[in-house]
Amino acid sequence: MELPSKINNNEKSLQQGISPSGNGGLISNSKLTALVVDSDRICQILEKAILESQGVETQVVGSGRDALDLLASGATFNLIIIAMVLPIMNGVETTRQIRAMGIRSKMLGVTACSYEREKQAFLDAGVDEFIEKPLTPQKLASIMREMRNA
Amino acid sequence: MAANRQALNEQLQKIVDSLKEQGMLDKQFGLVHSLKESNSPFFLAEIIPMFCQNVQTILRDLTQTLDKEPVNYYDLEEYCIKLKGCTSSIGARRMALACVTLRQASENKNKDGCILALNGIKHEYYNLQSSLDSIVQLERRILCHNA
């Protein structure tokens, strides 16, 4: 039984790191915006869906390099959610480089298995907060409130 | 028609509740299920097969990494963290917990412990997989009734 696929139609957009809403990387200023940096496909889809259910326009990239390239191209986001495990350049190093670019977006470090030392490394690199996966609306609540009030 | 749809929804909920009682799923699965309201009615029916494919790929990578000599424990840990990430994100509670055991064995560079832990993860996955297949089949039937 073949069902039309909304997830698969978004796949190409996800992989290209562009918004499926089709504005080629330019984000509307009327909504909160987020960038998800995660190499796991399931986490990408779920984190994007959770953020969008909260009214946040979300883009997804699968690596630290893609995140840096997107940010260097001028794309801006209220929130950057970044996984610790990423191919080639991990989340900690990617965070460091994002902050070195002068980007002051709210950054949330996420990982599935967190030891204290990893949490501290992420915070030292420049994330504002650190959470253990899975992402939930409850875990996002205080960050969302802060961003909406800003 | 509406009665059939309701019956299918109840049947699906019964499976989910049973899996929660057994500790195989947790409330995160309820959140994933609810995302179809804001995302797409096909969301659950599509993401579960993607999850299963993702898990199978990572389990293969873990197995291959453990088969090599010497074992690359760094890679093993990364695959383990990735697996825990996707299993916890979908709400596959016992699989996610089994990943913690693997990570600990990997940190201790205990190959036998890693093999045991990986077998434990596979066991949890195979137990969960048939129920997930049933959930997808029911969800597809519900979608056909809604169409």
TrEMBL record, chain A:
Sequence segments annotated as region (Disordered): 1-21
Can you tell me where the transmembrane regions are?
Answer: 70-89
Q: Which InterPro entries match?
A: CheY-like_superfamily, Sig_transdc_resp-reg_receiver, ST_Response_Regulator
Signal peptide positions are: none
Query: What CDD domains does the annotation carry?
Result: REC_hyHK_CKI1_RcsC-like
For whether the record's keyword set contains Transmembrane helix, the answer is yes
What is the protein name stated in its UniProt record? Response regulatory domain-containing protein
The organism named in the record is Vitis rotundifolia (Muscadine grape)
Q: What is the lineage of its organism?
A: Eukaryota, Viridiplantae, Streptophyta, Embryophyta, Tracheophyta
UniProtKB/TrEMBL annotation, chain B:
HPt domain span:
47-130
Supply the Pfam families for this chain. Hpt (PF01627)
Question: A biological process (GO) annotation for this entry?
Answer: cytokinin-activated signaling pathway
Q: Name one GO molecular function term.
A: histidine phosphotransfer kinase activity
Protein's job? Functions as a two-component phosphorelay mediators between cytokinin sensor histidine kinases and response regulators (B-type ARRs). Plays an important role in propagating cytokinin signal transduction.
Domain comment, in the record's words? Histidine-containing phosphotransfer domain (HPt) contains an active histidine that mediates the phosphotransfer.
Q: Which PANTHER family match?
A: HISTIDINE-CONTAINING PHOSPHOTRANSFER PROTEIN (PTHR28242:SF63), PHOSPHORELAY INTERMEDIATE PROTEIN YPD1 (PTHR28242)
Name of the protein described by the UniProt record: Histidine-containing phosphotransfer protein
